[in-house]
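Anyone opening a protein record will find just a pair of labelled lines. The record below illustrates this layout.
***
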Amino acid sequence: MKFLRNISLKKISNFRIGGKAKYFFEAKNISEIKKALILAKKLKTKIFILGGGTNILFNDKGFDGLVLIPKIKFIKKINKNIVRVGGGVEVKDFLNFLVKNELSGLEWAGGLPGTIGGAIRGNAGAFGGEIKDNLIQVKSIEINTLKEKIRNNKECLFDYRFSIFKDKNVNEIILWADFKFKKRKKEKILKSINEKINYRKERHPIEYPNIGSIFKNVPVENFKKEFIEYFKNKNIIKTDPKPVVPSAFLIAECGLGGKKYGDACISLKHTNFIVNLGKAKAKDVKKLMNLIQKSVKQKFNISLQKEIIEV
């Protein structure tokens, strides 16, 4: 086994931003993942696990270690309602499988980029649904010990855009997961998925390279009473799945839509998106993120929490 050397991260990331990875490897099965981890340990190099690259901001200097992509791409039915899916399967491919098999429960993910492993790690959600809603169990492998684990839904400690796999003390790769769905007519599932896809096309700046929502939406309970009344009057509180104030609204209220540093720009279409107009650098994006956090803190006394990952 050999790792590729000096691979451009710019070509891998949805943002089209980043330097080079010292080592790079795509593992097609669990055996290859283990071999890659063993070799990385021998080389005494850092490891970063990459899914679809849809919420990652790579550093302009690159990554001085191994970028490992676990491409475990299988989908199989365990029984009529339960499906096992590899962590490397793209969300769109999983949705296509569910449509064909008339299985309902993941329609909210229509148009969601990235992999199932990434969606589980961040407990992805939209339109009131979350990945945890249909999940039964997850199998993972510990990076340092190569020990394989299976956790049930409760043991994954799911919360708003969080799971145990995001815990800094848990260093694991998601291998596969089991989901339970309900039967529904194919036409109805497809219609619901397409509605979500069209919504994203209309509201999100997908015509430019981006990495999705930069900041998490903010639970209503975190705000002072006077702000909550203001949000109610504006009718912008949404269920996600608990009552939250969209970060996009807060950013827009600060008048930051269209603000640019270099080729990095806060989208006017959706102000919680920063887009790459051509040759944006990570440093430009970070400047905008700092500006957003500082401005929102000053205006609403709230510290926005990042939804993306910086590497």
About this structure: The longest strand covers residues 172-180. The chain has three domains: 4-70, 75-197, 206-310.
